[in-house]
Amino acid sequence: MIEIKTSKLSNGELNRGVFATVDIPQGVVFHQAPALPYPNEEHVHLEKTIFADYAFEFGEHHSALLLGYGMLFNHSYTPNTHYDLNFDNLTVDFYAYTDVKAGEELLINYNGEVDNEDPLWFYEEQEAKEAKSE
Predict the structure, then answer these.
(1) Which of 23, 55, 86, 124 could hold 91 in an S-S bridge, CB 3.0 to 4.6 Å?
(2) Which helix (H) or strand (E) holds 44?
(3) Which intervals hold domain SET (predicted)?
């Protein structure tokens, strides 16, 4: 149902994304990404690596790295995909928030809630760099 391809949301960098290979109706779970949870206090170790930008909040006291396609979804404030944390199965379950057509990129809101428009860390970092260079 899904595949990895180069995303047009790359901002000039090589960027992969998750794309639908078939039409996916709203509400259909199309991927269950296995989660590797770890205590939040251990996140400081990931901050020194590229994995810091890929970690998901996994409950109140844990973060998680995801296997499968889980860490490759790109961000949108108008996502067509949403996810639920499945603590019983230790997975993050991705489902179509809207009807998705074959070939469309599957996008999530990195804030966790579909309608949350809070600024994201990488936008804030980009703005700080631009302000510093002026």
Answers:
(1) 86
(2) helix 43-46
(3) 1-111
| Nearest in space to 59 (alpha carbons), one of 88, 82, 102 | 88
Q: Check if the beta carbon of residue 4 is closer than 8 Å to that of residue 16.
A: yes
Q: Where are the domains of the chain?
A: 2-133
Average pLDDT over residues 11-17: 74
This model's pTM is above 0.85: yes
- Please state, in angstroms and rounded to a whole number, the distance separating the CA atoms of residues 111 and 57: 10
In this structure, what token pair is assigned to residue 94?
């991705």
Residue 64: closest CA among 88, 96, 42, 95: 42
CATH code: domain 2-133 is 2.170.270.10
Could you tell me which of 77, 103, 121 has the C-alpha nearest to residue 8?
103
Say which amino acid occupies 107: L
Q: Is the dihedral of CA 11, 66, 87, 81 positive or negative?
A: positive
**pLDDT tens-digit map of 82-95:** 999 999 999 999 99
Question: Strand, helix or coil at 123?
Answer: helix
Structure tokens at 104: 């469309």
Classified as helix, coil or strand, 40 is helix
